Amino acid sequence: MRLGLKIFLGFFLIVGIAAFFVMRVFVNEVKPGVRQAMESTLVDAANVLAVMAAPDLKAGHIGDGDFAARLATAQRRDPKAMVWRFPKRSIDYRVTVTNAQGIVVYDSRGQDVGRDNSRWNDVYKTLRGEYGARSSPEIPGDETNTVMHVAAPMYDPADGRTLIGVLTLSQPNDTIDPFIVASQRAIIARGSWLIGLSALIGLLMTWWLSRGIGGLSRYAKAVSAGEPVPPPKRRRDEIGDLGQALETMRRKLEGKAYVEQYVQSLTHEMKSPLAAIRGAAELLQEPLPEADRQRFAANIVQQERRLTETIDQLLRLAEVEQHGWLQRRSEVDLVAVCRALAEDAAPRLQAGQIELDLELPAQATVQGDAFLLRQALSNLLDNAIAFSAPGGRIVVGLQRQGPNWRIAVRDNGPGVPEYAQQRVFERFYSLARPGSGQRSSGLGLPFVAEVARLHGGVAALHNHPEGGAEASLLLPAG
Question: Which domains, from first to last, does the chain contain?
Fold first, then answer.
């Protein structure tokens, strides 16, 4: 299991379990909470009604007195109320009055008059000076529909202390069930939104962390594989600090290895020209004919130029390889670069009696480093000139290939031998020039390949079907 998935599952598990239990507590507490609030309201109303009904009970007119008449009038009213999206069109209270012995003497529904309620919990406790309440089925045996009964003592209006009866106020619990269900649904809906939002936050956090860790992982793998890669993007957290530490470590390790590698390469390439210079210098110390002396002196100059070219090319290649990524990037006009190179190469083309044709579109731009691209194309053009015979022809073409621009430099020379086609981009590998037999430093094409890589492109060299070699650069269009 990947780290990102572990982080997300851990975060979601913690938040989800916590939210589930919180929702469950709220949902389970809604029903008793609402019923407790209803009971409190019934207590207030029962005591108010008990005081109002006491005079009629003492006078013996509880069933046909003013209290009964007014209560009947009230129960016929239509409240036309809208309580929290639920309409209320009737009075749901039921009033029962018992005497001091617990016998029902008044029932607002006229059903239980004469029944002995002294054993019911609401009447039983109230007659003994305690708070009396009970919840019982509205229909005997049906536990789904219950009624809450709250009792209040009725005292003699003359002294306010003598208990003369009990008033019980009842209300069906199903009158508040819609409010309970609506509250539970609201809690579940909002809880679901909370869990969903938590999951989204967890997903974003996991993506953010995984992105940083994944970037470090890819960077470390690329470094271990020896691939030149840019350092991780700066972040103001521990992941950013780790990335910078890895980049610093990479630079120090690569710097040591890079110096060692290039010192070995340079010393290897310097041995041959230095041996030639030393041999020519020793011979010049002896008496020689003027023609031989001139030939040996020219050989020293030629080997010195070879050494200088090798060192310059090596430094240029080292610069682009060490960076690993482009230090500056801007819009580069490839058409203008190709025309400028053609103008610069005009004297060499004229001296070699070589014709140069430009096949360029009206406009072609890429994002990159203009100096490096010009150097790379200059190397390709130099190679084409070096391998072209007098009277030859070079074609520099620029055309669009999908999302890329392809720059091709084609000559009509001998082409690339089959044995060398897989090695032309190796460092210090070069082929003898036609006619002179001289070799270059072998660093030009590696430089071209590195510049192409820095620009997200690729360099290639192959033989053209119509003869000669064709070197190309494929660069993403800007």
Answer: 3-182 (3.30.450.20), 228-325 (1.10.287.130), 326-478 (3.30.565.10)
